[in-house]
Design a protein that fits this description.
132 residues; alpha+beta; two-stranded antiparallel sheet; two-stranded antiparallel ribbon; 2 helices; 4 strands
Length: 132
Amino acid sequence: MYLPLNPPMVLDVVGQVITASEQQDNNELIYSTALRYFYIDERDRDRIIEYITAEQLAQLRSYRKRLPAIADEENSAAKTKKNAIRLITFFLCCLLLIWLYGWSSSYLRQHPKSEIHRLFEEGLRRHMDKFK
């Protein structure tokens, strides 16, 4: 098994090919092979794990470099959506307040006065007429 570490290494392993399939990679024919290993030296196993870990870290780093651009696009879209919702909510609240103002002012002008209210106003008028 070839590992492109620094320095590159060739490891002796004993295994069995389970599956193999041909694949094209940049007009080059390569084989994807799955192996079942029967014997790997412990130090070689550690080197394989080291190589796989280094490759995964490199892939994560490259993904993180692309992630801020994706996150910025998602954040700007989310901010735009949130601002639109706030603006719509503000206008709906304004419309509700205008409607409530119109309704309450027409109610105050047109509602019939209660008996107590009417008697209080008459008594107040008679009292004020005494001082004229």
